[in-house]
Amino acid sequence: MGKHAGKALLALIAVLLLAGACFAEELYPGENALAEAAKKEKGINSYDTGPTWANWQALFDGFEKRYGIQITWNDLGSGATVVRLDKERNNPQGDTAYYFMPSGDAAREKGVTEPFKPVNFDLIPAELKEPEGNWFCIHKATVVFVINKNLVKETPKGWQALLDPKYSKSVVYLDPRTAGIGYAIVIATTYAHGGDLDHLDKGIDYLAALQKSGNVRMIEKTTEFDKFVKGEIPIWITYDMNAYRARYIAGLGDAIDIVIPEEGTITAPYAISLVKGGPNPNAGRLWLNYILSSEGQGLFAKGFVRPILPGFEMPSDVADKFLPASDYARAKDVDWVKAQKVQKEAATLWGSKVLGEN
After folding, report:
1. Residue 185 covered by a domain
2. Containing structural domain, residue 183
3. Same domain for 246 and 329?
4. d(C-alpha 323, C-alpha 54), whole Å
5. Which residues pair with 271 in a beta bridge?
6. How far apart are CA 77 and CA 49, in angstroms?
7. Same domain, residue pair 261 and 155
């Protein structure tokens, strides 16, 4: 090959790389071919991936930078996402759907998911994936309290403490009928009060007592991160990933306390699926592969979101900021497939006992 021809070839390769047409080093075998197929579609509709939740904005940015494919998102809540998928089954609009793991299995039961095994699927623990790939977990999080110390003089250390009258109109959490974290809170309070998945009334009775005490400020429908950062929420029951994000990324620092309740809590996995009949199936597969790739899992980690892949090391500057392992020892794992089976019953019982609905 002549000198000029060689330079021309190198220039062409550089242009192709900059355009995202191919990668000299793929994240996984077949990435280039899938990316090319995805670029012929019309972007991605990613359901329930609000950008302030689970560091999704960083994954959006990384994906769009790598492939030049635009992601459109919504922030529905896990339960509401399953309802939306069911309503759209004859004309699917979403390409992927993200939810609290039990909602992933509910979506599978309704027949609105498409089997797909992304890169690193084999590394995901068996109990955290559906064998055919109708859903698979991508990260996990622990239920905690986040306290705005500018609004709360004394930090509550556990569930019982939240019943104290000094926390009047202070507590905010998400509705368990529409949001995965809401149901996770029901399960966390259940285990903290001696119950289990066969006795969820233990946690719901506690939440009813909390409601009756007058200490609940608001039960929200969707993510309250921005409200907390603005100083509108004294005590937020949420996941640790949101708490660390508020402290270290949103810049609240020592103005907040992060508490793993002394009576105990739970760690919850979150899953994602390819939507059956979605309008952009190749782009959807490309997005799911990216999320489970080392790059995608690393972006979760940088945002204090614990990756699902076993042995994935958190960056040292992130790992050092987590609460001690002795605190996390109070967080239980539960049978999440069974949790899905009793979720509807729990939602109805919560509505009846906490809100007084018939």
Report:
1. yes
2. 141-268+325-355
3. yes
4. 18
5. 99, 137
6. 9
7. yes
Tokens 């709360």 map to which residue?
152
152 burial class (0-12, 13-18, 19+ CB within 10 angstroms)?
middle
Q: Give the count of domains, the chain.
A: 2
- β partners of residue 238: 144
With H, G, I as helix, E, B as strand and everything else as coil, classify residue 317: helix
186 plus 249 within the same structural domain: yes
Residue 293 maps to a domain: yes
Q: 154 and 125, same structural domain?
A: no
Computed on alpha carbons and rounded to an integer, the radius of gyration of the chain in Å comes to 22
Taking the C-alpha atoms of residue 186 and residue 192, their distance in angstroms, rounded to an integer, is 10
Residue-by-residue pLDDT tens, the chain, 358 positions: 555 555 555 554 444 444 445 788 999 999 999 999 999 999 999 999 999 999 999 999 999 999 999 999 999 999 999 999 999 999 999 999 999 999 999 999 999 999 999 999 999 999 999 999 999 999 999 999 999 999 999 999 999 999 999 999 999 999 999 899 999 999 999 999 999 999 999 999 999 999 999 999 999 988 789 999 999 999 999 999 999 999 999 999 999 999 999 999 999 999 999 999 999 999 999 999 999 999 999 999 999 999 999 999 999 999 999 999 999 999 999 998 899 889 999 999 999 999 998 7
Asked if 182 and 108 sit in the same domain, the reply is: no
CATH for 211: 3.40.190.10
Report how far Cα 65 is from the mean position of its chain's Cα atoms.
Answer: 22
